[in-house]
Design a protein that fits this description.
heterodimer; A: 251 residues; alpha+beta; 7 helices; elongated; B: 173 residues; mainly alpha; 0% strand; globular
């Protein structure tokens, strides 16, 4: 092969997209041709310049939580009628039957009241945080690290406490999206269990006493101090979750 | 309880950084890229029942790319938003430019600036190939063009970038 032919192949060679036979021919040519070798060297220099971590943007904090929130909203509220139509058209009666079953399931599971919707949302957030291996955005047992981490990411400053001495070590914090607004999620451990404590500004100034509920096997404890809404969600039993709440409130 | 959204969370959202990176390079502005990424992810969720497994990153990037181009067309100057037409712009000159000394390749700000000022259609292939490490076939799928087109765009993109990085910084001697 001559230089113009090699020049046509050199990029694919550089990108590892050339078959073995051509790779061999290009390699042989490169060994003898300083000019073509120089072209390859420039491609490498360019690659080195572009493969710099400083040039790779990472998703801003909070974007993931916002997407999760809108996905959750789509999944629970407008649900199947919207998505069912293309299924019927494109996939025939099997998909149609599945769609009907799914719609029935989601309709029967669809929360009836606002409070119930919130409970479902909190439980879903808790489960997601465990499933997606995305328990914390900031992993720290130090409340003085976790609290400032929320600065600038939320429009309020959530109270952060470590309860290590009483057996509920702080594990970290995470941004979440609850009740249509950004919320802080504080993550605590209890042996092998996790507690998500969701915190967001209260809508009404009147404090509300602790109430507990169960949802899909998870226990929820909710209260308000008139400034902040608190919801603790965990697979801990109700008694232990009440202990956690009283330790949290007791400080 | 919501198998579909949990499944989406597990298979698609791990590629959020790649999605945002592509949107950000195509669109430029931080806030707009964030909005486009969010909207594309929501769209991906709505189409998720049609995802048959396979390369989740390429699948998400295809949707993000489409959203980003739609945004570019309605918000940017015409010449930036027109998708490059190989037929119209003629064949590719494959010869390398021996003058391209790449004197500023080590300056990350210069590289960022040079990449940001390439036409979007060239930015796109370089970001996918060099930053995301996509193979030609993946880029072809994401951009919806033949592999040959991917290769000619890459050649042109690299040559333009080489030239930009081989000239002195404007305004400086």
């Amino acid at each position: 092969m001559n230089c113009p032919q090699i020049q046509k192949l050199i990029q694919a060679h550089h990108d590892g997209e050339l078959d073995a036979a051509n790779t061999l021919q290009v390699d042989e040519h490169l060994a003898d041709c300083p000019q073509c070798f120089d072209a390859l060297r420039r491609l490498s220099t360019l690659r080195g310049a572009l493969q710099n971590d400083a040039l790779r943007f990472t998703a801003p904090a909070g974007l993931r939580a916002r997407i999760r929130a809108s996905v959750a909203q789509t999944a629970t509220s407008e649900q199947e009628p919207v998505r069912a139509r293309p299924w019927f058209q494109s996939m025939g009666w099997v998909a149609a039957a599945i769609a009907v079953v799914v719609s029935i399931l989601t309709l029967t599971m669809q929360p009836a009241r606002d409070g119930d919707r919130l409970v479902a949302e909190l439980t879903a957030s808790h489960v997601r945080s465990l499933m997606a291996a995305h328990l914390t955005d900031v992993a720290s047992t130090d409340q003085h690290t976790v609290k400032p981490w929320f600065d600038g990411k939320l429009d309020f400053a959530p109270p952060v406490r470590d309860l290590r001495e009483t057996g509920f070590p702080l594990l970290g914090g995470r941004l979440d999206f609850i009740d249509g607004r950004p919320a802080a999620a504080l993550v605590y451990g209890r042996q092998k269990h996790f507690i998500n404590l969701f915190v967001w500004p209260a809508k009404t100034a009147a404090p509300r006493k602790l109430t507990t509920t169960q949802r899909n096997g998870y226990n929820l404890a909710q209260w308000s101090d008139g400034k902040m809404e608190f919801s603790a969600v965990s697979d801990l039993n109700e008694a232990d979750l009440r202990v956690f709440v009283s330790e949290w409130q007791g400080r | 309880m919501e198998p579909e959204s949990a499944n989406f969370d597990r298979t698609i959202l791990p590629h959020l950084d790649a999605a945002y990176n592509l949107a950000r390079w195509l669109i430029g502005d931080e806030r707009d890229a964030e909005d486009v990424t969010q909207e594309a992810c929501l769209r991906a969720f709505k189409f998720f029942s049609g995802f048959r497994g396979g390369d989740a990153r390429a699948w998400l990037l295809t949707i993000v790319r489409r959203s980003a181009w739609t945004w570019l067309r309605s918000n940017r100057r015409h010449e930036e938003a027109v998708e490059f037409d190989e037929e119209l712009h003629g064949g590719v000159d494959d010869s390398s430019n021996p003058e391209a000394a790449l004197t500023r390749a080590g300056d990350v700000d210069a590289v960022r600036q040079a990449l940001a000022t390439l036409p979007a259609i060239f930015r796109e292939v370089l970001v996918l190939r060099e930053i995301e490490g996509c193979a030609y076939k993946e880029i072809a799928d994401i951009a919806g063009v033949p592999i040959g087109t991917v290769m000619s765009r890459l050649t042109r993109a690299r040559r333009q970038l080489q030239e930009a990085l081989s000239t002195p910084t404007p305004g400086r001697p």
